[in-house]
Amino acid sequence: MAGNGGEEGLPRAASSSSGAVARVRARGDPLLIVCRCFSVITSLTAILCICVNVLSAVRSFKDGSDIFDGIFRCYAVAIALFVVVAETEWGFIMKFCKILEYWAGRGMLQIFVAVMTRAFPNESSSQKDLVLLQNIASYMLLACGLIYIISGILCIGFLKRARQKKEVSREQAIKDLEPPRTFRAKHSRDLAILLAKSAT
Fold this sequence. Notes:
mainly alpha
């Protein structure tokens, strides 16, 4: 009886510890989830700006109507690509561009791209669809930039970075709590042997 109780206690303890780890993993920080969703929206908006500026540049170079507008659009594409990369928060970029860690700086860059996308619209009847796309993309990115600036002033970016550090340390703690695979395999094998012996 005592042996059975001991054997039953082992899987219970293992399952309770794994259940605790699963519960800790299941919990996600709501602020970080909202920030990630907003970052995805901003990236998609910047990609829309890239597409619009590429189309405008192609039309400018193809028609030969305004070469300078085409060059201007190429610069807009390059800076919009930088906005998309900044939203990934890639460590290499953040290391060399510290200002993008701060949301106010990131928001100003997005507003600059939005203004570049909206600048010099061609009001000809053949390009009204492109002008409409320019307006949509620029105003959406302008809204994202304003939200970033307001959030930066309210120190939400600082709070997000603090929560990220906390989440990373929590994930590291969870990894440290988990037994290695070799230990789990040995524990399962020993448990199977004990159960086989008790059955005989």
